[in-house]
Predict the 3D structure of the following.
Amino acid sequence: MNDKKKVVNLDMKQYGMFLALIAIYVIFAIMTGGKNLSPANINNLIMQNGYVVILAIGMLLCVLTGNVDLGVGSVVALTGAAAGIILVDYKMNMWVAILVAILIGLAVGMFAGFFIAYLGIPPFVVTLATMLMGRGLTYTLLQAQTKGPLPDDYIYIGAGFLPTIKVNFGDGTLDLVCIIVAVIASIALILAEMKSIATKKKYNFATNPMWQVALKLAVMLLIIWFFFYKLARYNGLPFVLVIMVVLIALYAFITSKTVSGRQIYALGGNRKAANLSGIDTNKVFFWVYTNMGILSAVAGVVLTARNAASTPKAGDGFEMDAIASCYIGGAAVAGGAGTILGAVVGAFIMGILNNGMSLYGWSTDIQKIVKGAVLLGAVTVDVMSKRKKG
């Protein structure tokens, strides 16, 4: 009986993130008179937060080790600057620019990973150094100038849409591709939940009450259909959404189904115990920060494509949004606990806050105060809940 209670409490905490996302969205819908409900705004919400989601996915792996990466915003700017220079100054192929950006991200990630894993320098110090050096290199490369406009095929990565099948619907049109994807996503979600329940029953694990399963599915299906319907009423599926979904699926698999993923959780839970169990924690640290460099480069490409230009100030403060996304999404401050889905939900909570406050007319100063309060509240709840359990 106690095991079942523990499962219920844990699941309700996870569902709380989705409920918080909906609640914040509804609050701003009321405050802005429904401005944030428009199809155009939903599209902007996804496009404007694509790079934050990408960074949050990589940052979660760092947070799982009990650390963060402060240099991601500067790496976003540096890789975007390199891509812009190759495209504008050297008129080279788009794929060359993307490859160079990824290689630079890889190099920065390996650089940080080497100092952290094999020289034992604290991640805070190393990534603070990469933040300063990356920003300095960006200004040096761009000479404090903006590079643009970028080619249309490159811009498509951050601002383009997949082909659509438009049909007349009501007072406008509806994209059938979005509806088909929503149906597939809904079926996949229901089947995954059924498989999870069957697996738990097979091994005699405690299962969740049906009302709880139904609540979870109802909330998630509501979110899926709301977003896809709004996109269907606009220009269809943004290409950046495809990038996000692929990365979310890939890293959700890595963290939950692979040995490498389990090693990250073990390292974050107790490094000494992980070492004693035969895990090469230095190797884990190295690949986690190398991976963060690569994903920062991907975010840099997406951001420059979205902006159609490379700017020296690109990525400014992105590290804070990525870190906050992980903690708001339920990642433990001490490491060892957190999910990719949670980090993604956290990123969208941050995005909805930014979007809603901007539509309502709050200044950037007030927005920072609110985001800081939300972050502090999320971490306080996590820490206090652990103390009560202890």
